[in-house]
Amino acid sequence: MASIVKGAVPSPNIWNTPQVYELENHAVDPDRHVETAMRALRPWAGATVLDIGCGTGYHLPALAAEAATVIGVEPHGDLAALARKRCARQGNVTIHTATAQAIPLPDSSVDVAMARWAYFFGPGCEPGLAELSRVVRKGGAAFVVDLDATRGSFGRWFSATVPPTYSPAAVEAFWARQGWSRQELDLRMVFERRADLEAVLKIEFAPTVARAAIRETEGLEIAYPNILRWRFF
User: Fold this and answer.
1) Phi-psi region for residue 68, left (φ > 0), alpha (ψ -120 to 50) or beta?
2) Which helix (H) or strand (E) holds 173?
3) How far apart are CA 54 and CA 133, in angstroms?
């Protein structure tokens, strides 16, 4: 049984099916719009970079190729172990089994923090935001990448899966109150095999919604509308 840090917010897709989520990571954003948008705001060459909710460490090697130091934080012990294995040959990468709301780093020790589809979903993530304010040094930046539930088929499928209490308007109002900026990103998922596309839809949505999404999707590509949020410190 996996060791999971107390206080972790469950992430059923990657926690339950990391192999399928690996396919999703590989498919998302082949155009590298996320990296381009973040770099335009705050480059990380030679910097100390923190990846919150790093999972199996998919993004860590690419970050380590540019940054001076890369730190991954992941509350699921098994996933953190996979991240360490993935980055075993990268001497500038460290992975901590920890949560976003209790980052085991000193004050003002990070230049760039980022979280992709992890923890920072709006109301309730205030403890994690407080930790960002603590660990990101002056002149640094934090980025949060999340699905845009108001756009496209993917947003519609998402809205049909989450509890009815979820409100995109409330999420936007939350981030506006926190003083974060936003930019819409028109991402894609591009798969090598149809079976991979269908497997990913099945881990992202409720079964009835996933079946409908599979019927609606032709070929190997899915439009994936996202929002990049950021704050400078």
Assistant:
1) alpha
2) helix 168-178
3) 19
φ, ψ of residue 78 to 5 degrees: the values are: -65, -40
Q: At what angle do helices 194-204 and 152-161 cross, to 10 degrees?
A: 40
What does the pLDDT read at residue 1?
Answer: 57
Calculate the dihedral angle through the C-alpha atoms of 17, 158, 150, 99, rounding to the nearest 10 degrees.
-40
- CA dist 202 and 208 (Å) reads 9
- Give the list of residues 6+ apart from residue 35 with CB closer than 8 angstroms, or none: 62
User: What token pair was written down for 128?
Assistant: 């994690």
pTM score above 0.90? yes
What single-letter amino acid sits at 225? Answer: P
Splitting the chain (233 residues) into consecutive groups of 10 residues, what average pLDDT does each group show? 88 96 98 98 98 98 98 98 97 98 98 97 96 98 97 97 93 96 98 98 98 98 98 98
Q: From residue 71, give the alpha-carbon distance in Å to each of 12, 95, 138.
A: 23, 6, 18
